[in-house]
Amino acid sequence: MNTTNMIAKRDGLYNTVIVLFSFIILFFFTCLEANAQKRKKDSPNIILIFMDDMGYGDLSSYGGKGYSTPNIDELAAQGMRFTNFYSAQAICSASRAGILTGCYPNRIGIPGAIFPNSKVGLNSAEETIPEVLKKKGYATSMVGKWHLGDAKEFLPLQHGFDEFFGLPYSNDMWPVPYGGGSITKYTSWKKKMPLLPLIEGNKTIEHIEDMIEMDELTTRYTEKSVSFIEQHKKDPFFLYFAHSMPHVPLAVSDKFKGKSEQGLYGDVMMEIDWSVGQIMKVLEKNKLTDNTLIIFTSDNGPWLNFGNHAGSAGGLREGKQTSFEGGQREPCIMRWPGVISKGSISNKLSCTIDLLPTFAAITKIPLADRKIDGVNILPILKGDKNVNPRNQLYYYYNDNALEGVREGDWKLILPHKYRSYEGEQPANDGYMGKKHNAEIGLSLYDLRRDPGERYDVKEQNPKVVKSLLKLAEEARKELGDGLTGRKGEHRREPGRIETK
């Protein structure tokens, strides 16, 4: 073989090796990219924005008037809007216990609203959303209103959150009278309230002493949330952003004061919409939009007797602190590009307690061996029209009172007493108006035709009543019922501080 042939053969072999090596490198990086995409799909960032006392009719996309919420509306246009979505219970602490644990709040011993210096809080034995997600390396942050116990052992860092910045309870739990003003020797329950602590981590960093300082809360919460996203843009993260607004006392920064036709309430809603816009912008800036699931909803309905400082139940009956639709049915918007179809609507029955098992299904993380009440609604998010993960809902209130049950579109109200807003003239400008004691007997409503719960149709539907009474009995056996003296077989204790 002459020299020329040898060189040609050598060069041909060299070129073959180069091509083969390039193919191997390309295949390697293709596999890496495929694995990275799979990791993203299985570990999306999750942002849960939780409002306080926002009603079903308080967003533009749900009929809100006198102000606009363009950023939240854009979320709805890019994602899914729910029409049959419920809070776990129609009051602060209970609803928050439900959303974080996937349980009816009365199952885990958290009724009502926990007051400052309480000896009771969320039990550390309950598995929370951040504790689930940390199994897969998520960074976790809680910003805003906690309200599951203000003792150190009950605060967010002891329940799976890496960071916490916010208030330990509602912003009206301070010694400032309704309607604003200075700290005073108030003659009501507020007289016993401590100063309002702003906490970072486990430590109080300052106290909010007047409405001027309260005005900056939404902005400060938003800045802290944006900072967390920037810091963890390369990690999967979970942000639980629980606004203190629009719970009274309403507070808004100067940049939104006087901007709406609706007065202060509208100004507050506009600032919250701005806050959502800031979250959307930081995601877009860091190319995180397509890999982030955003959920926007509320803890319970509007506190109607505050008049122009309260929201709208959107034509639903009653509001906060009742088991009627105005108390528990909430707006809910979810956006997750590539999974949730743009501009879609779900009329399926869903609840905040369904979020934890849904997140577990998305991330393929096994849950603890501890009974919960939520169901996986991921098929709804994916647009499967044939699924119906949840067909039943229990309406509990107060300590453990079963006030209603729902199956499909039928809702049976069980006899109970309640505080009603109807027929009362609400107060305005931050002051609390009257409610009155009311009582309702056994009543049946077809929520498809009558979401306002105005027409009792039990006489025409005895079989439906019988079926729902059976469902109520199942609830009583499982979770008890204070109205009928049932304790329930599977309730658990809250966390308690033992006193010596």
UniProtKB/TrEMBL annotation:
Region (Disordered): 479-500
InterPro entries reported for this sequence: Alkaline_phosphatase_core_sf, Sulfatase, Sulfatase_CS, Sulfatase_N
Regions crossing the membrane: 12-32
Superkingdom of source: Bacteria
GO terms assigned for molecular function: arylsulfatase activity; metal ion binding
Domain Sulfatase N-terminal: 44-363
Cross-referenced SUPFAM superfamilies: Alkaline phosphatase-like
Pfam families: Sulfatase (PF00884), Sulfatase_C (PF14707)
Keyword terms, alphabetized: Calcium, Hydrolase, Membrane, Metal-binding, Transmembrane, Transmembrane helix
Similarity remark: Belongs to the sulfatase family.
Entry-linked PANTHER family: ARYLSULFATASE FAMILY MEMBER (PTHR42693), ENDO-4-O-SULFATASE (PTHR42693:SF53)
Protein name: Arylsulfatase
